[in-house]
Model the fold of this input.
Amino acid sequence: MLTQSFKPSHPLKPKRNLRKLGARIFAFFLALWVAIALHNLPEPAIAASPVQTPLSTRGSQIIDASGQPVLLRGVNWFGFETETHAPHGLWARDYKEMFAEIKTLGYNIIRLPYSVQGLRSNSISGVDFSIGSNADFQGKTSLQALDLFIQEADRQGLLILLDSHRLNNQRIPTLWYGDGFTEQDWIDAWTMLARRYKNQRNVIGADLKNEPHGEASWGTGDRTTDWRLAAERAGNAIQAVNPDWLIVVEGVEKNVPGQQLQHWWGGNLEGVRNYPVRLNVPNKLVYSPHEYGAGVHNQPWFSEPSFPSNLRQRWQIGFNYINDEKIAPILIGEFGGRQVDSSSKEGIWQRELVKFIDEKALHFTYWSWNPNSGDTGGILKDDWRTIDAPKQQLLSTLLGDSVALDPDPTPNPISDPAPEPTPDPVSDPAPKPTPEPTPDPVSNSGLTANAVMDSDWNAGFCVRIPVNNPNSSPIRAWQVRFEMNQAQIDNSWNGDFQRQGSQYTVTPPNWGQPLQPNQTVDMGFCAKKTGSDYQPRNVRVVEL
Done:
């Protein structure tokens, strides 16, 4: 079994070359502005209904198939690009539980790293097949495991952005070829995936190459190093097979004519102004910088006297001009860190970036869901069950009304699937119909709560309990109480769940008290079924 200190997705980088990092914060929902006739006309509000794929772009917006603006707010879940050739954490938890928890917390997309070497693997590791639905992965190749992962994400209403993170399983290469692989190997892997998932509605695009750096350039015209030209070659090859996908292009580190600033790996999009990426299919291009704090590497700009006010100018020069000038949408593909406090450099940086994402209505995928990213940690703590509450609280300011797919018990067929072994009889690939949520009860505090069944399969289920304060004044201390008979809670978040017989009492974390007017706290849990009478009932809030 892999240890929590194992950091496969981001090996330490040389000090001078920076290290790899973590993840993302993302955009909630201020106001996006549409470029129709008049440049300054306000755009329509973000769609509140489930997104209809395929997605496209319109100026700085990402829009769904009905033309409604969508905000992508997600996490990175790594593992397929490492020696396990499978998502990490399945040695500790049921993968369906984790999908349900991601959805419950408010995210709507997973950026999913892979390696070209891993796609060719006939086996996976790092999975405890005895844990719940993980038996689904028994005997699967890495590509078959990828199929299962994507299909379950679809069933639970989560989008997938595929990310070519590595060529081999060990490191992030400077260029899109090397480590024993050619440019054609890289493009062939992409066209295979584009064809395979062409009819899989929740796979929305291709993040072409993770963090070009070192000798990678932009706008130099050198075919061997110019990442902008390579992105065009790969993007157009993908579009020839699957014109519906978004093509996501990261920046470089340096080697951009006229660049003004020093940047992280993949963070330099200064070259877009004079050397934009040109694709054959229009309205499908998204630019994607990566951004990290001092906890990953103490860059010079974190020690400038003007810190943190210098950050906004950096972000404007490095990438946000693309958003403001409606050239294309910006998706911050990675950002993250261990500190979110208001005193450390990393905490201040992370708070400032969250504000910036909110104000500019940017898209993001946070690094990472995994706790075993050595320099950033994750949304989960080392036990793969406990939520890092301060980190999630900060990110929750961006997660407002999440827009995602309708959960679908019938996944779309995967094109040209590899033959699979007979499924293990204990697996249950399709969740049962979701019961209607319990009506909001009236409590002695005026707070409302209900139990929403987010996922339900043969062996277990996951429930979300949103608690809202509709009053005009804060409630300073409160608890949720409910009854549940034939079920055993094995994971919970945003609350301390205590049981006496069939009676449960849930105390919110310190940051959830007091509950301000119109504020909502989402609690939740996943549980194993011990009988047919497993659904929670009589959910209520009690003021203390």
